[in-house]
Design goal:
oxidoreductase activity, acting on CH-OH group of donors, about 160 residues, about 10% strand, alpha/beta, two-stranded parallel ribbon, single chain, flat, GMC_OxRdtase_N
């Protein structure tokens, strides 16, 4: 299935824009999920959402030192942008079945031996298939400019999504 979706980005680049890396600052388009084993990362990823991430950071003492002091929280890192300029977008998960032997349904859900192997690998060292999640592609989209649903532009600009599929 992946090859068909990514193939659409080559054949219909206007309708299906390809995005190599959502972390580049340009969010729109279709991208494949990148999964790295934690020992290879040079950063900490805190995937708690637009609300949860700043909540965790602030309670950990990472934020504006004046605001943290007013709350009685000791500052560990003075970073005034935490919990500022927040935005989020709607996401729809659309599960469907395809006639493809590489689909997740055939690779994992209909393969009990692979399920057992995957669970054993994850339990022994925290790596493998079960660390990647079930989503392997995302499409971040915007409503057309002619659509009057949005009366104002989002705070983070026109290179970010209104919704995600």
């Amino acid at each position: 299935m992946d090859k068909h979706i990514i193939g659409a980005t080559a054949n219909l680049p206007i309708e299906f824009l390809f995005n190599l890396d959502y972390n580049s600052g340009h969010q729109l388009g279709i991208a494949t999920k990148h999964a790295l084993a934690p020992p290879l990362l040079q950063e900490i990823i805190l995937p708690a959402g637009a609300i949860g991430t700043p909540h965790i950071l602030l309670h950990s003492g990472i934020g504006d030192n004046t605001e943290l002091a007013l709350l009685g929280i000791t500052t560990n890192l003075n970073f005034s942008d935490v919990a500022k300029h927040l935005s989020d977008h709607v996401r729809w998960d659309i599960p469907f079945t395809v006639n493809d032997t590489t689909a997740i349904e055939n690779v994992y859900f209909r393969n009990p031996p692979f399920q057992r192997e995957s669970l054993a690998e994850w339990q022994s060292n925290g790596t493998g298939f079960l660390t990647t999640g079930l989503i392997n592609q995302l499409r971040c989209l915007r409503n057309p400019n002619k659509n009057d649903v949005w009366h104002e532009e989002t705070p983070v600009g026109n290179a970010t999504a209104h919704y995600e599929l």
